[in-house]
Design a protein that fits this description.
Organism: Belliella pelovolcani
Protein name: DUF4199 domain-containing protein
Oligomer: single chain
Keywords: Membrane, Transmembrane, Transmembrane helix
Order of helices and strands: HHHHHHH
InterPro entries: DUF4199 (IPR025250)
Helix content: over 70%
């Protein structure tokens, strides 16, 4: 466990940032009054997500590798962070869905039917539910974590 102490630290920071982002979305009305804008504005989450991941990789480079990190060492660290986040993603989604913003699913279901995105409530419910979001967030954590790390390490790695 000591070997991945920094990766765990940055995964926790990432999780806390994600929960804070969801609180901000709720406060901004993106899960209620302004739900029509949610589809677009939620993508801004990528900015702090990338920033946190890059900060984590730079911290690992500095502390774990004394400022000298190879692409593969950084990729391994990023994959570990992504795996930790993915493991906690269903729990994080539970907190979001049932504590932070329990009104999101009913609101998005109703609105998606009103605007004709789905024909029936049942179709919308099949898309917008905790189980589906828990799966999606777990897969996204892995895919986006590895992708972000792969690109970031091109710039963070030590050049010889």
């Amino acid at each position: 466990m000591k070997n991945i102490k920094l990766e765990f630290k940055w995964a926790v920071i990432f999780i806390l940032m994600t929960l804070a982002w969801m609180v901000l979305e709720k406060i901004a009305g993106l899960h209620g009054k302004y739900i029509d804008y949610h589809l677009y504005l939620t993508n801004l989450y990528a900015i702090p997500a990338i920033i946190v991941m890059v900060m984590g990789l730079k911290d690992i480079k500095s502390q774990k590798y004394a400022g000298q990190i190879s692409y593969l060492q950084g990729l391994k660290a990023g994959v570990i962070i992504a795996i930790i986040i993915a493991i906690f993603s269903p729990g994080m989604q539970w907190i979001i869905s049932y504590i932070i913003t329990p009104e999101y699913f009913p609101n998005v279901i109703q609105r998606s039917v009103e605007i004709g995105y789905f024909d029936t409530i049942e179709e919308a419910e099949a898309q917008f539910n905790f189980a589906n979001y828990a799966k999606q967030s777990t897969i996204a954590a892995l895919v986006m974590g590895v992708l972000t790390t792969g690109i970031a390490m091109i710039f963070i790695r030590s050049k010889k």
